[in-house]
Amino acid sequence: MEKKILSSRYELEEQVEQGGMSTVYKAHDNILNRTVAVKVLKKEFYNNQDFLVKFNNEAKAAASLNHPNIVNVYDVGKDEDAAYIVMEYVDGINLKKLIKGKGRLTESEAINILTQTCYALREAHNHSIIHRDVKPHNIMITNDGKVKVGDFGIAKATSSATITAVGEVLGSVHYFSPEQARSAYMDNRSDIYSLGIVLYEMLIGTTPYDGDTPVNVALKHINSTVRIPEEFKEKISLPLQNMILKMTNKDMDSRYNNIDEILKDIDSINAGKQIQNYSLENEDEFETKIIKMPKKYTTPNKKTVKKSNSKKLNVKNIAIASALVIALVFLLFNAESLYDMAFDNKTVVVPNIIDMKEEDAKKTLEDIGLKLKVTDIKDSDKEENTIIYQNPSDGVSIRKGEEIVAMLSNGLKQNFGAPELVNLDVNEAKDKLEKLGIGAEIEYEFSNDVNKDIVISQSVKAGEKLKKGETILLKVSKGKDENLTNVPNFIGLTVEQAKERLDGFTLGNVSYKQDTTKQDGIILVQNPEKDSSAPKGSSIDVIVNKLDENKGNSGQYDPTLNVQDLPKTVSKEITLILPQKEYIKLTLIEKSTGVVAYSTNVSTLQSPNYNVQLSSERGTSKQYDIYIDDAYYSSTSVIDF
């Protein structure tokens, strides 16, 4: 595939999966140096602003979940014409492919996968997040048998689209709960229904309902009752049959109330105990009833019906059946509207309260007969006490008196990473930080490689966690050092005469050599050489002629000393600003050669400032790449030795 990098960070490597709503790629995070999965929305959804807002809100809510059985959501972003979610890359197979490959799973395999999936859903439900799209395609099995549930909250975003317009919804209709098929109010028991369909498919190999169109399948969820096929009643243990029937009951109140109840029954099954028997025969309200009719309306005996009327009767029956099907389809897609018409004094449409202050949202809901329930407070860049998540979402019709579950922002966003600022103009970098509520400390330095006013490095690397109000140190290029000047000529001068002509330079190392052909006390050699260019303020080393063996006023006499014997290695100490952690591995690599120049383990909890001693040959200039825990962090400016 053609190389593509999203937001200058995520390099797409290969396509992993193609769905009706999105495409999933295996990708490389160039900042954190790790493999990730990137789900890129298709263009038709990117242009739907309502969809994007809901998609973004749900993805952020999902990112707040942290559990070993949940696929981690790392990032949500937009890049040109692409909206994407960055997730943990799971090396394994999805449950749908596993079932397809094996035909059906053993009971022990199904129970193991069911248990781990329950752990994931329980974590979500405890945070008031309903998955809404539980299906085998979203359940990954790693190579070591661990279950990872993905796509939390994504189905909620798709619920605003019609059933015929969204391919992903069409693909999920086999796992719809009856209330989801009716576009009615949903809660955690809707996920339990879908999970029951998944358990059915694991043990039997197919879904309970199929049809020529998605509408047909949805109607079966609404009107039919899940039953265990006769040929499988001998193959599946009675407790698991009971569990399937209870999970997939059309009546929400007759299902398991929560995931913990399912896990309790799983424990009983694993211990060899029976669970509460669940019989469909007791559910009269969902069965077709035979009503005795008065004698005068008793159906005539077949023998009394004239043969000539049979064709008319068949035509009439077909017409009635067709009309019923059309009416049923109409009711499916207009159930919510008809319900509102019949009970307009008892139901209301949920408004959008995202970005509202808690008090404003509470008043808005109370004005239409609803209640606000705040379940969690999250770190966010939104203003304090602003609502960042709601369930149910706006547009859903519910009864008056129901609660709207919401999450609030605490105004201290912990879960956003520092932006990439290196190579940006300093003003652009400052604007980015200002929008995030982050301060900028600017430190300018000369650079032969980076243009003036361009950011060379940042003290908090891109992707690292930040809080509002924190400050990032930016090192910014002053451009090339234009303060270079010609080195004065000290040859033939005494040290005292040279001191008078330093012209902004300093006198460096003074050594001695005996040359009987030259005058005593004069400078024989200097480094840098005369008329060469060097920055003002740098030092000039000299060798002075000494005709006797006494020590001079400064330096050490050496009759064998030549210019090439001046100290070749020079040390420089630089100060690095590092992330404050209990323990980091710090490595400096010379940029031009790739040679490791410095490596150590260090604690920076007390102070982010850390001094490093570097050495190189005199007269050389070098730049170093800084790595923290083997990941690129930033680069030093050019250091002159």
Automatic annotation (TrEMBL):
Keywords, sorted A to Z: ATP-binding, Kinase, Membrane, Nucleotide-binding, Serine/threonine-protein kinase, Transferase, Transmembrane, Transmembrane helix
Transmembrane segments: 313-333
CDD domains membership: PASTA_pknB, STKc_PknB_like
Top-level taxon of the source organism: Bacteria
UniProt EC number: 2.7.11.1
Pfam families the record matches: PASTA, Pkinase
Descriptive protein name: non-specific serine/threonine protein kinase
